[in-house]
Amino acid sequence: MVSLFIKKNIVYLPKNQSGTKEFTETFLVKYEDVLVPDYYSGKKKKFRYEKQRRELYTQNNDFIIFARGLVEMIPCSEYNVINDLDKDIIITPELDRETIKHTLSSFDLREDQVTAVQKGLIAKRGVIQLPTATGKSAIITSIVKRLNEYNPNLKSLVIAPTLSTVENITKTLQANGLEVSTFGHPDKEIKRGVNTSLVQSLISQSEKDPDLLKGVGAVFYDECLPKGAMILLPDGSKVSIGEICDSDEINEVMSYNLETRTYEPKRILNKFKNQFNEKFWRVYYKNPATNKEEAITLTYNHKVYVKDKDYVRACDLKNGDKLKIDIDNLRFSEIAKYVYAEVLSVRPNVGKKAYYRYNIEVEDNHNYFADNILVSNCHHLKCDTWSHLNELIPNAEYSLGFSALSIDKKEIFNTDIRQMSYDASLIVGCSGRVLMHMDPAYYIERGIIALPIVMRLNNSIALPKDFEESQWASLVKVGVMSTPRTKLIAFLASVMSKYNRKALILVQEKDHAFTIGKFLNLIGCKFGISFGAGRGYVTDDDGETEINEVRYKYKESLSVLDDLSNGDIDILIASNHLDEGVDVPNLDAVILAGSGKKDRRIIQRCGRVLRKTKNGKYAYIFDFADNGSRVLNKQSKQRLKMYRGDIGVPESNIFDNIDFTNVEDTFRKLEGINE
Q: Which pLDDT score is estimated for 383?
């Protein structure tokens, strides 16, 4: 048995006591299968799985240091707490269910929401997992409001991964009578009361001011735990470098040809992951698209492309250096050749710690875009962002995470850290074990979210002879974006529009959106396109822009969403900026025009249509079987499994391999529409 010192959010395990090494190896170390390169032959890259060590702790000269949430997942017979360094000072609010029910000014909480609020207030740390569209923001607001009433000097912090999520939770808090400070707009301090922020903004400022978050007494994570820098893929989507290195299906990234100054998809030749014990460097720059400060974290010798200087090590960058930056709306325009981000400052991270670093090697151009910045390949990027942030908030008594599915269902009821995966352990460390998990079926049965209908189209992908499906960019072009499949997408949307139903088409690539738009225009449908970052279009015969023989009028992205809500358009084509954090009301159908296997983002996309405010009886999810492509069909089957298991669609509501000629008749029968 070992002795632990606990300081609210952080646990200290003395190195000089008997049993520390055994305790650390047993409970704070994971060995998981990681993809590593095996051999390279011809056009196909082979990978194999290898056991690699992953640690759940950091250390200094005297202590092993780990997150408080892990303690309750370790058998209490293995440790004793010899000194609780800080006693709790936050007053627990009244827990009466009727009082909690009436917390919000705009509506009463449901019974399940009241239970979630009670659990959060009593347990103080843990994860609450509820499906999209079931009111997680209302639960967060209720907990924050109750705590604020009893603790007027409390500093509360709600952290989210995207700007749209921050804006939405801020509006919800304000609508219920709370004064809210959004960190960084314009103040860069955590104020007494309620604060909201992007995770990266906090980390950036914490490295300049290590004491920034030490006064935070309650922290709430709205959607949890990305795994490192976001890498641009050939289809225009972005995936964390951790997901790339852990996946055997992502074998290409978007690269940049410095001679021709054009974007090019390139193969990944090598993937690595190992531990790194040196300082990382933080590069702060001004994004010319938003005019805001952003940052990227790199190892000291990671080379970044600088205009007129070639590649420069992160530690050698100077204020005023011009970095090549990727901006979604300009990616394939002539303007993109001349867009750069100016370096504002460069500094090492505070302290020397152990992190995991991911490593990919890219063919030909030997570069890729990480967090929008062009970097040289075969170097390393910091991961476990939320875990790092948790260490910067050592005094939080409340630490609660809210998500649709941050911890996999098969791990929800684990009570022993030894049985949990590395990723689940990170989440538990930050917030604590799962306090509450509700399946979508519960809400569907009670009419809280719409009853979903899944139609998986029986389409065929005609691939060229000897086509290599491991080349993802090429597969997207000839498969996902093929003309027959794109026509099917437009047909499905037109059926919804014909019966005054609103449809959202989610695409992964900008070019695909305009191609779908071409076919919708031929059918005679009026539609809008939203790409995020403020950029949007609606069809207009007098519009100033013509793309693929369709005339468009430029509109702000949010204005296009308003057009859909107001009924000015029935069809919206959108990129993955709508995956989470953006409320798209009154949707009847979502059409998954892209691809990809089961993951949290697909669940978020389906969640767009599960809200009850709609015209028809059901929420329709249209997907594609993609027969004829081994990779796309496998991904489609994984999504089908997700519809059944994670979303809870009844078997009677799944129309698998339905022919497109039967879609309209099936829809009419389900909705009770006479011919």
A: 44
Distance from C-alpha of 404 to C-alpha of 168, rounded to nearest angstrom: 16
pLDDT higher than threshold 80 for residue 318: yes
DSSP secondary structure code for residue 476 in this structure: I
Provide CATH 2.170.16.10 ranges for the chain: 230-383
Contacts of 98 (CB under 8 A, 6+ apart): none
Backbone angles phi, psi at 602, to 5 degrees: -65, -40
Domain limits, CATH 3.40.50.300, in the chain: 97-226+386-438, 442-671
Partnered with residue 369 across adjacent β-strands are 374
Mind listing the pLDDT tens digit for each residue in 525-574? 999 998 765 578 899 988 888 999 999 998 877 788 888 888 899 999 98
Average pLDDT over residues 95-107: 93
The sheet with strand 589-592 has its strands ordered as: 545-547, 550-555, 535-539, 527-532, 571-574, 503-506, 589-592, 618-624, 451-457, 654-658
Phi, psi of 149 (to 5 degrees): -65, -40
For residue 228, which of 307, 331, 298 has the smallest C-alpha distance? 298
| Block residue for tokens 């060229």 | 464
User: What sections of 279-337 are H helices per DSSP?
Assistant: none
Out of 138-142, 198-202, 365-369, the most confident range is 138-142
Residue 310's DSSP bridge partners are 306
Q: Which one has a higher pLDDT value, 298 or 272? A: 298
In the numeric block, which tokens belong to residue 494?
């037109």
b/e 3-25 (16+ beta carbons within 10 angstroms → b):
ebbbebbbbbbeeeeeebeebbe
Mean pLDDT of the chain: 84
pLDDT band with cut points at 50, 70 and 90 for residue 413: confident
Q: Are 628 and 463 in contact (CB under 8 A)?
A: yes
| CA angle centred on 447, ends 144 and 673, rounded to 5° | 140
pLDDT at 276: 54
**Residue 412 in this model has a pLDDT that exceeds 70:** yes
- Cα 465 to Cα 42, 331, 462, 628: the distances in Å are 17, 31, 9, 12
pTM, to two decimals: 0.74
The topology under which CATH files domain 97-226+386-438 is: Rossmann fold (3.40.50)
Report domain 442-671's class: alpha beta
Instruction: Give the DSSP letter of residue 145.
Output: H
Strand extents, DSSP E, 140-250: 155-160, 180-182, 193-198, 218-222, 230-232, 238-240
State the amino acid at position 178 in one-letter form: L
Query: What CATH fold (topology level) applies to the domain 230-383?
Result: Endonuclease - Pi-scei; Chain A, domain 1 (2.170.16)
Euclidean distance between CA atoms 555 and 96, whole angstroms: 48
* Burial of 153: CB neighbours in 10 Å, binned 0-12, 13-18, 19+: exposed
pLDDT of residue 85: 58
